[in-house]
Design goal:
Number of strands: 14
Shape: elongated
Radius of gyration: 24 Å
Bound molecules: uridine-5'-diphosphate-glucuronic acid
Low-confidence stretches: none
Largest sheet: 6 strands, parallel
């Protein structure tokens, strides 16, 4: 049965959720206090790069199921479910999650809540946040409001597909009415075969942060094996391939390299530790601190290799291939590529960053670095090339043409994506993180 939904917060999560729910037939009001964002979305323009979402936005707008506005109005009184999709960034002065956007979203919403209203969080939050928000609402109104949690698992670069056909949908409720309405909201997904997991609210809050911690753990595990491999002359990519054939382990999220970044995994594992410490349960997730150390060491490893190869980095020209924290996004938040670029710059190198999509963000956040979307221009005169993001165009680049542009054909593959035998054949010295490329048995 079609529902009326308000999606509050129109970033990656909210914009994608609004579009997806409109496409499956619900009436959606997307709300964000940023009037420029609302105007852009209303005109069918996405304020960020996400493959396929712009076409889907146009399609959803054409159905008249989707409108955007910068504040609540009388229409909010007819809403069946309010979905909270605002960001929960890391606190400025701590490791915990900053809940201020959730607080202000709830405060703006409360005057419009009628008795029986359903407020459902989708943002990634510390366990206990739903209880806290319910308490906050109760302090401001006498109406009877139901709060529930329905965490989102979408990946940037794959956001629409992950929303329309996710691996699972988790519904965390504590009242029958919310559960019934949320089941109806996701009926189209359930009919398409998506498993629905119905749990209590605290479990729902925890599932998301546990999932992100587990993913980060897989990456850090394989990167720890990369450190060991480097120490003993083994090959971590071959090791990961062999591990991945074990179905209990699986081959996903075992790509070695400069590690994980982005607006989610790093801040989520920090927030999890902070919350667990608050609850006196810190020992249970103490291993997350080791994971983060492994992750950050992969970044400094690139700096160490650069120094070992070039000596003093002062004035050396380094080209960083990639700025986005992963391909198919223009998001550079906590990007490993940008962290490495900055480390090299701090050591005196003259750094040029290339990225096919994220250059505007690089200019805005790293004004001290040169940045271009032109690959040839980026490679010109380089003493060292570093692959920081696994954009397909780097794996497809012609190593011979690239060699003709640089001063010194030296590349550190921080994502293990280059067909390195072809690069070696074109005269490049290739150093790949965690790999032993001198071993003739290494062919992958
Ligand atoms: C992550 C989760 O995968 C989503 O399920 C979750 O919904 C989302 O966070 C969120 O909390 O909103 P995302 O940040 O878009 O999604 O990116 P991932 O695909 O998880 O990649 C994270 C980082 O790990 C990237 O920097 C990527 O390059 C790196 N990575 C990934 C590796 O270094 N190795 C791998 O094998 C896989």
């Amino acid at each position: 049965m079609s529902k009326t939904v308000a999606v509050i917060g129109l970033g990656y999560l909210g914009a994608t959720t609004a579009v997806a729910l409109a496409l499956v037939g619900h009436r959606v009001i997307g709300i964000d206090q940023d009037a420029a964002k609302v105007e852009a979305l209303s005109a069918g323009k996405l304020p960020f790069y996400e493959p396929g979402l712009d076409e889907a936005l146009t399609e959803a707008l054409a159905t008249s199921n989707l409108v955007f506005q910068s504040a609540h109005d009388h229409g909010s009184r007819d809403v069946d479910v309010f979905l909270l999709c605002v960001g929960t960034p890391q606190q400025r002065n701590g490791y915990g999650a900053d809940l201020r956007y959730l607080e202000s979203a709830v405060d703006a919403l409360t005057p419009y809540l009628r008795s029986g209203a359903i407020v459902t969080g989708k943002s990634t939050v510390p366990v206990g946040t739903a209880d806290y928000l319910r308490y906050r609402i109760e302090q401001q109104t006498n109406v009877d409001v139901h709060v529930s949690w329905n965490p989102e698992f979408l990946r940037e670069g794959n956001a629409l597909k992950d929303t329309l056909t996710p691996d699972r949908i988790v519904l965390g409720t504590q009242d029958a009415h919310s559960l019934t309405v949320l089941r109806e909201l996701y009926q189209p997904m359930a009919e398409a075969g998506v498993p629905i997991v119905e749990v209590d609210i605290k479990t729902a809050e925890l599932v998301k942060i546990a999932a992100n911690s587990f993913l980060a753990m897989k990456i850090s595990f394989v990167n720890a094996m990369a450190e060991i491999s480097e120490g003993v002359g083994a090959d971590a990519v071959s090791l990961a391939t062999a591990l991945g054939y074990d179905e209990r382990i699986g081959n996903k999220f075992l790509r070695t390299g400069i590690g994980f970044g982005g607006g989610c995994l790093p801040k989520d594992i920090r927030a999890f530790q902070a919350r667990a410490n608050e609850l006196g349960l810190g020992a249970s997730v103490a291993f997350l601190a080791d994971m983060e150390d492994i992750n950050l060491r992969r970044r400094t490893r690139v700096l160490d290799i650069a120094k070992a190869e070039l000596g003093d980095l002062n004035g050396r020209r380094v080209t960083m291939l990639g700025a986005a924290f992963k391909p198919e996004t223009d998001d550079i938040r906590d990007s490993p590529a940008m962290a490495v670029a900055d480390l090299l710059w701090s050591a005196g190198a003259d750094v040029t960053v290339h990225d096919p999509k994220a250059i505007d963000n690089v200019h805005a956040m790293y004004p001290h670095l040169r940045a271009t979307a032109d690959l040839d221009e980026a490679l010109q005169g380089a003493d060292l090339v570093v692959v920081g993001t696994e954009w397909a165009e780097y794996a497809l680049a012609d190593p011979q043409a690239a060699a003709a542009l640089v001063t010194r054909p030296l590349v550190i593959d921080g994502r293990n994506v280059l067909p390195y035998r072809a690069w070696q054949a074109a005269g490049w010295k290739v150093i790949a993180l965690g790999r032993n490329l001198d071993n003739a048995l290494v062919t992958a």
